[in-house]
Amino acid sequence: MWRVFFTSAIVAVVVRTAMGWCKSGICGHFGGGGFIIWDVSDGQDDYYFKELLPMAVIGVIGGLLGALFNQLTLYMTSWRRNSLHKKGNRVKIYEACIISCITSAISFGLPLLRKCSPCPESIPDSGIECPRPPGMYGNYVNFYCKTDNEYNDLATIFFNTQDDAIRNLFSAKTMREFSAQSLLTFLAMFYTLAVVTFGTAVPAGQFVPGIMIGSTYGRLVGMFVVRFYKKLNIEEGTYALLGAASFLGGSMRMTVSLCVIMVEITNNLKLLPLIMLVLLISKAVGDAFNEGLYEVQARLKGIPLLESRPKYHMRQMIAKEACQSQKVISLPRVIRVADVASILRSNKHNGFPVIDHTRSGETLVIGLVLRSHLLVLLQSKVDFQHSPLPCDPSARPIRHSFSEFAKPVSSKGLCIEDIHLTSDDLEMYIDLAPFLNPSPYVVPEDMSLTKVYNLFRQLGLRHLFVVPRPSRVIGLITRKDLLIEENGESSAVELQQSTSRSVQ
């Protein structure tokens, strides 16, 4: 969190500096810019009780379209992973080029089929020209119109950056700028292309396209509301904003964070209750059909993403029942190199318990060793020994640095197939004691599975040992026992309490 806060502060300073430098107009199409992308603070100031019903309808539409979007992208991504992308990396490039050409052809061809409309009467002090000047972004695009006093509403959406297109849909004082036919055409086209494009081998997100889809049908609903409630002061851009929030809520299933983001980027705090309303409705409707977009994609890729709360049936289960699906593979403290290589080839476990035997013959779990650490040991070969006896850790120098055991960010790391071991290497031994985690997290076998689930969520665990119920207790730690002074000694009150417990 501190890293995110620090980088955000740097971004804010850099953007402010760039904004001041670009005020003179030397930045071209980058313009002056700013943090608030779609300022609708000059739009609708108030809302009426009669508007709550169409706003609730927007939430329902957002939930339905968002759930359908998640399901369609799931099918498309599954098809890509299972058939298309297995043909090689060139296929990914061809796919991106084909989709790009289709998008360009549709974006240029559809506005040609749309007739131009006459420019409306200009509103004083609105700052909106019809048609807009050539080479500028904004409202009212003149695209192959017969006269200079006309504009093409479909081209107004297509021939803009997505930011400017969203600003046009959110804009106030532009009543009847878009026709219902143009909005429906753009919605069907953009929704289909968003489904097809999502999952291709291009760096693209879903946040801004989701706002485009939602603001389109939101503006469409706003047009019908304006015609139905003729006497009320209603802006179509307000419904476009609520539509954008509803689709994001129905697709991504986020509520609080989306609400804050939409209020920040629109700079209109008065619309906060309405945004909360459509977000709650769209999320409830979407949850009735499937999971959120990111949860669906994470599950498809096999990422073990845990939900915020455990399932209800876990209350009736214990930890022992959850770990019966796989056999535990334990390693002795001193193990042959050949056995390590065989175990790593025969399974894909990420961690292995390490056991040792006491003088009385009792088996003792001494820690956990990771698969990646074993691969590093096999590759370096500096810790191989001829003796099958444990070595003295104090007399053994450290031959590795911490960077050797760090997992690389840009690759998958080492594989057992990449390591070459000779016949002499396979007959040697490794003492795992210096390379294991001597204090892994441990739970008793009869612990409730709900508690185990919460431990994984709250502590960010990847491994958890399940052991038999302990036979005795050697101590009891409370919060006050952890209040240790900087010099390593407890305070006088805690020391007195510890003494009294010992006496008792």
TrEMBL record:
Keywords: CBS domain, Chloride, Chloride channel, Ion channel, Ion transport, Membrane, Repeat, Signal, Transmembrane, Transmembrane helix, Transport, Voltage-gated channel. Pfam families: CBS, Voltage_CLC. InterPro entries: CBS_dom, CBS_dom_sf, Cl-channel/antiporter, Cl-channel_core, Cl_channel_pln, ClC. The keyword Transit peptide does not apply. Its main location: membrane. One of its GO terms (cellular component) is chloride channel complex. It is a multi-pass membrane protein. PANTHER family: CHLORIDE CHANNEL PROTEIN CLC FAMILY MEMBER (PTHR11689), H(+)_CL(-) EXCHANGE TRANSPORTER 7 (PTHR11689:SF136). This is Chloride channel protein. It comes from Eutrema halophilum (Salt cress). The lineage of its organism: Eukaryota, Viridiplantae, Streptophyta, Embryophyta, Tracheophyta.
